[in-house]
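Record type: monomer structure entry
Structure origin: computed from sequence
Chain ID: A
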Amino acid sequence: MPLQKLLFKPGINKEATDYASEGGWVNSNLVRFRKGLPEKIGGWAKATTNTFKATGRAIHAWVDLAGTKYLGLGTTWKYYVIDGTVFNDITPIRATTTNGITFAATDGSTTITATDSDHGAVVGDFVTFSGAASLGGNISATVLNQEYQIDTVLSVNIYTFTATATANSSDSGNGGAGVDGEYQLNVGLDVYVPSTGWGSDYWGAGTWGSISPLTASNQLRLWSHDNFGEDLLLNARGSGVFYWDESSGTNTRAVALSSLAGANLTPTLALQVMVSDIDRHVICFGADPLNDSSTARTGAIDPMFIAWSDQENVEQWEPLPTNTAGSFRLSAGSAIVGAVRARQETLIWTDTSLYSMTFVGQPFTFSINLVNEGVGLVGPNAMVNTPKGVFWMDKKGFYAYAGAIQELPCTVDDYVFSDLNQTQSYQIFGFVNKAFNEVGWFYCSADSNVIDRYVTYNYEENLWMIGELSRTCWIDEGIFSDPKATSSTNNIGYLFNHETGNDDDNTAMTNVFIESADFDLGEGDMYQSISRIIPDIKFTGSGDTGADGQTLNIVLKRRNFPGEELTTAVTSACTSITTKIDTRVRGRQAVLRVQSNDTNTNDVGMGFRLGATRIDIKPDGMR
């Protein structure tokens, strides 16, 4: 018989049965499709060996007037401005104490008890002490006068931290009468805590009927940020709005927007901050509105309220006949989930609807129109702007917008949404990879409280891909030459450059594979014997070629009926000079799997692209 060519349809299809998907691919990891053919995705490497604290949640790139490139990075605990390879901590100061902190130590312990009246701290917060005197022994002034993270909060006046030295019997002092403390913005959580409403002082309280007293410090920490010229605006979701002045240098911290000279009725709380395109208004989504007399902000989040500043003016938020500051309250939905700048408009999602916000000038400043009611947004970062429009993820589907809403036909829809941790949907992070015409979403699978999977859509070829990779935020190439993403383990985070090389941070990438649906051998009515496999693989990596070079495993599985378990019949290494793989396989149906050779840990620099594999078959009886 002639050789049977195996050229499968591009894209992953998990909506049908493995047999009904004949002629296609049904599973993959770390593989993309380009021009119809599957290939290994690009590798990644640390942008720097320097680390950041906790989990990265948002990243933003911009350039100052002198051409210096910056990255802003918001994490669960802190906010950094990255200049070159240095993570500069610009986390705002929440409160200061002057001459009001005392310490107590215990012989043989590193635990220090601090007393500070009404400190307002939560577990995990950071505080920097100054002016402290030695406690008399190992706990010297040098030991005390630095930044510490709070371990426990014993009361509204007392907390503990772990010193960098162990106290001895001489440490009987209290640090003196001149101890000052700077408390950074309360830290947030790494997981989302469900609630049923919003309140005047905290998330989930008040007239909305929640029984969960949530604040920005005991909720999943998410950040929004945008540059205003060369300066930076930032907002921890549910917390204040802050401003970082680039001209003051990276050794200075962001400050409350309300503390700027000339600040007038600036929002004190918000869910998201953004600078509008072209007209340059600062917009706060889910802001606290003005009181009834319009003399002050209420200090309570209105989750459907939008406020914006005067044009080109971050300080002026009082709506006056002489400026363009203003506000608007949306009606469709119960809370603003997220917003993104699009082409000549800003798109705003509530939990049930999509709005378009367009600059129209005075007297109305912005026109806000309901685009669709019934399609919301699954999480604040689940949307992404691309050259082909805006793509986003709702609770049960994927959508695109380029002037009108389009639901995307998805061949992995059930796979994603039936195994999605809906409680942690606010962790979902949408990304674009323009070089490969891809948008995607990192998400938590059903049994995970951390991001462990991704789903990707090629918007030029209308193809879907899936895989496992833990990345908590992402920014595409643009100001910087490579896409960048973050990943953290045990609250130690790294920034990675993506689409660079072929490896996992200079080690061989493992668990790379693509697997086909079942295909009939012959017509499928008779047993067939497979005597050889002729691979068609182009090795594209930077590693060596030849017998000792880049390696892939060719796996052939077989079964006789769709309901029968697959049996692995062949696993054979394949190199750039492999011409054929001899086999002795008998069956009615088969599955082709191509996977990384994970036993070859030295196989760095391996990349591949698959073509049309052929198999040599002949009839082998009816049963």
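Annotation 1: The two ends are 19 Å apart (CA to CA).
Annotation 2: The helical segments are 141-144, 413-417.
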